[in-house]
């Protein structure tokens, strides 16, 4: 199966879940047009409270639909947009990508992966016990954050469900994803 966009979502307000839509427009250096996290500087409320001048490394949130399947198998009821993601994917190991990987989406849009989303207390407010389900441990005991990846827009364009995703890995040193 090739990597594809499964669904897209946006919300102009700072709600936890984002409603699905037919398409989203990515704007270079800004994020998703009409989304609360759109902008050059950080928009996440806790980060704004610390330092509103920080660069926005969280312009577009991507989550693999296979994680929704995992959560649903555990008894949670989750669908695209519920966990605040802008783009739900299928057929791509988002968590296995290195920092700086570029995702070519559809015919024009490109996002660059900046890091991992850190599951927060809002996830338990959405469905009790879900924060723990969004975390895991690898064979060495290191923490795994499963709640998707964050990115910046390096080339704007319209993104729709069904669009193909092509991965371009960075050259040089491969840096693992960290929380942004």
Describe the protein.
With 180 residues, the protein is of the alpha+beta class. 14% of the residues lie in helices and 32% in strands. The protein is built from four helices and 13 strands. The strands form three sheets. It has an eight-stranded mixed sheet with strand order 2-1-6-5-11-8-7-13. It has a three-stranded antiparallel sheet with strand order 4-3-12, with no helix packed on it. Strand 9 and strand 10 (143-145) form a beta hairpin. The relative contact order is 0.25. The mean pLDDT is 95.
> CATH class, anyone?
Mainly Beta
The biggest beta sheet is recorded as: 8 strands, mixed
**Percent range of helical residues:** 10-25%
Spatial arrangement of strands, main beta sheet: 2-1-6-5-11-8-7-13
Q: Return the structural class.
A: alpha+beta
User: What fraction strand?
Assistant: 25-35%
Number of domains: 1
Integer-rounded radius of gyration: 15 Å
Q: Can you say what the CATH homologous superfamily is?
A: PK beta-barrel domain-like
Which regions contain 5 or more consecutive residues with pLDDT less than 50?
none
Mean pLDDT level: 95
- Per DSSP, the total helix count is 4
Shape: globular
- How many β-strands, per DSSP? 13
CATH topology heading: M1 Pyruvate Kinase, Domain 3
SSE order, one letter for each helix or strand? EEEEHEHEEEHHEEEEE
Any chance you could write out the topology, listing elements then pairs?
Blueprint (H helix, E strand, L loop, with lengths): L3 E6 L10 E2 L1 E5 L3 E2 L12 H6 L9 E5 H9 L13 E4 L11 E4 L3 E8 L4 H6 L3 H4 L1 E3 L5 E3 L3 E7 L1 E4 L4 E4 L12
Parallel strand pairs: 5-6
Antiparallel strand pairs: 1-2, 1-6, 3-4, 3-12, 5-11, 7-8, 7-13, 8-11, 9-10
